[in-house]
Write a structure and sequence with these properties.
Strand content: 15-25%
Number of helices: 11
Shape: globular
Radius of gyration: 20 Å
Distance between the termini: 29 Å
Order of helices and strands: EEEHHEHEHEEEHHHHEHHH
Strand order of the largest sheet: 3-2-1-4-5
Bound molecules: 5'-O-[(R)-(carboxyoxy)(hydroxy)phosphoryl]adenosine, zinc ion
Length: 358
């Protein structure tokens, strides 16, 4: 049995978890500093970094305690070294480096976006309240990775053998949810707020344009996001000179609900369209959705319905608590790095890579 402690601090969540053999979740502790960012409508990097610093030690201690582990039980330490906010990554990486030296454990450097995919390899837990996939996804895997910082379609032939099929040219889909929520005066993070508001709205009320791009599997979300702003300005009888943060006060609740539902429909359709198209081209054994936006019920519904309609296997996704940022996905990824003899990191020199790509 291999137990790995995973540490994640790339954005606004300070997280640590212990995962056994890359599949059994023994603990999962996430301290979100989201509340600190609500008043700004988005993550403020310096505030996030300071908050990581304050809570990282207790978060790690709690992850060990929840897993009933002492340091002697831990076989390795995994940490996100990119992509993410520099000051935030630094806190997790320095903590992991220090612990690897002091506790004499191997150190695994993990790519955050790959980590989101590996959340889907976690299939069991003694912890209450998790709905997990029954088995790990089979290769080849078509992975739609949709979060606040990333929107990518990736084909995994095997562990660590993958091709990036497409990605966003501008905003990530989660970022677009967050920005649209801000225009509608809905609280940060925008994904869950828009989902909630959309329940009362008509998804056909507005037709926001889907971006058309030359590259088959690339995305763009800045167009639909700007279309929402223009529609709101028109509804309110204001032009671009009117402060956008004051527009929401002029909208009725039903108008907000219709815009939320219509935007959500377009955003979800955009990523679902490309995923279905890629499924038809590559015929993977499994389709998974990963990242914070994979928690979106409308995305899950559309993907399931459309894949079933073309005779494809059901889409795989995991518990919403493992879709958004967490340490468990990092620990799961590191297990496979070890299994596949990927080099471990040097605890004396491991550097952060804020712009790390896949
Ligand atoms: O994966 P994640 O926690 O962080 C990044 O790696 O970016 O994703 C956070 C993003 C935020 O933009 C948030 O608005 C979005 O995921 N999100 C959702 C939902 N829950 C979180 N978007 C749509 N629907 C949701 N239910
Ligand atoms: Zn993430």
């Amino acid at each position: 049995m291999v137990k790995i402690l995973g540490i994640e601090s790339s954005c606004d969540e300070t997280a640590a978890a212990v995962v056994e053999d890359g599949q059994r979740l023994l603990s999962n502790v996430v301290a979100s500093n989201m509340d600190l960012h609500v008043q700004y409508g988005g993550v403020v990097p310096e505030i996030a970094a300071r908050s990581h610093l304050e809570v990282i030690t207790p978060v790690i201690e709690e992850a060990l305690q929840q897993a009933n582990c002492t340091w002697d039980d831990i076989d390795g330490i995994a940490v996100t070294y990119g992509a993410g906010l520099g000051g935030c990554l630094l806190v997790g990486v320095m903590a992991a480096r220090t612990l690897a030296i002091v506790k004499n454990k191997p150190l695994y450097a993990c790519n955050h976006v790959e980590g989101h995919v590996y959340a889907n390899f976690i299939t069991s837990t003694p912890l209450p309240g998790y709905v997990l996939p029954k088995q790990p996804p089979a290769f080849p895997i078509l992975a739609l990775i949709v979060s606040g910082g990333h929107s990518q379609l990736v084909l995994f032939r095997d562990h660590f053998d993958y091709t990036l099929l497409g990605q966003t040219h501008d905003d990530a889909i989660g970022e677009a949810f967050d920005k649209v929520a801000k225009v509608l005066g809905l609280p940060y993070p925008g994904g869950p707020s828009i989902t909630k508001k959309a329940l009362k709205g008509n998804p056909q009320a507005f037709t926001f344009p889907k971006a058309k791009l030359a590259a088959k599997y690339d995305f763009s979300f800045s167009g639909p996001k700007t279309a929402v702003l223009r529609a709101v300005q028109e509804l309110c009888g204001k032009d671009h000179t009117f402060p956008s943060f004051k527009l929401a006060e002029l909208l009725s609740e039903p108008q907000k609900a219709d815009i939320a539902a219509s935007f959500q429909r377009i955003a979800v359709e955009t990523v679902a369209d490309k995923t279905i198209q890629a499924y038809q081209e590559y015929a993977p054994a499994t389709v998974i959705i990963a990242g914070g936006v994979a928690a979106n019920a409308e995305l899950r519904r559309q993907m399931s319905e459309r894949l079933t309609a073309i005779g494809a296997p059901a889409v795989t996704y995991t518990d919403p608590k493992l879709c958004t940022d967490n340490g468990a996905m990092i620990a799961a990824l590191a297990y496979y790095q070890a299994q596949h003899h990927q080099p471990t990191a040097d605890p004396y020199t491991l550097a952060i890579e804020p712009n790390l790509s896949m």
